[in-house]
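Researcher: I need the complex structure. Ligand is pantoate. Inputs:
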Amino acid sequence: MSRPLVVDTVAGLRARIRDWRRDGLRVAMVPTMGALHEGHLSLVRIALERAERCIVSIFVNPTQFAPSEDLDKYPRQLARDLDQLALAGADLAYTPGVGEMYPAGFATKISVGGPSAGLESDFRPTFFEGVATVVAKLLLQASPDVAVFGEKDYQQLCVVRQLCRDLNLPVEIIGAPTIRDAHGLAMSSRNAYLGEAELQIARRLNVILRKAAAALAAGADQNGATGEASRALLAAGFHKIDYVEARESRTLTPWRRGHEGRLLAAAWLGKTRLIDNVDVSTS
Ligand code: PAF
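Model: Output:
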């Protein structure tokens, strides 16, 4: 199992992709911020079902972190990431530095409307601008045929779809199911911040959301079910709930009964903010 080729410049990335294109190969991209776990590796595997070559970008994007957030302590472990990518069969790791992505004088921001309204944006008002800008850059740098994003960051996935549709970016966006541990906890690089006791509490998040989604699907009042879920999260040991909300799966407008829905939540456990989401219609 050989480690993927590593390139850290746009020119190096494009040269390699040009060779693949010359050989008639399809190219997939999996954008990440590193600290790879089984969730990311599942994205690579899905990418390799759709294309012969898979690029994984590893870039801790400063523009999507607010000054109060965890940019400095965000886990960085390139050597381990490369070993993981070798196991998953990725062909190339794209690891640009901040200077390559945002050279002096960089002055563009992409603001996506629609699905970015509310939820994360109420608590991280500059987050999606940072995500949309870096994702647009990565997709334009690599011009992949397909790009894979996890449903774990469900609102981000909807924002990326909107971005690509609105800007006619010639890439197919694939949403991949959330990978969970044996107790239902969604894999996340930020789980690394959790101690053993917090991990036990974190595992309640998915259980409580699934219960609320089932209640909604069975006809429970929306405010009643989301309020009950928030109370259950607090009782389980989360100390602050940012939101528990049901939205339409595709547009993220408020959920209407009879439509496909998604129940999304963000909650704090100590200094760690966890997000998760579940399907309302089938739970
Ligand atoms: O989901 C992430 O890891 C990041 O938000 C992304 C899509 C790689 C953009 O920096």
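Model: Summary of the prediction. The longest helix spans residues 127-142.
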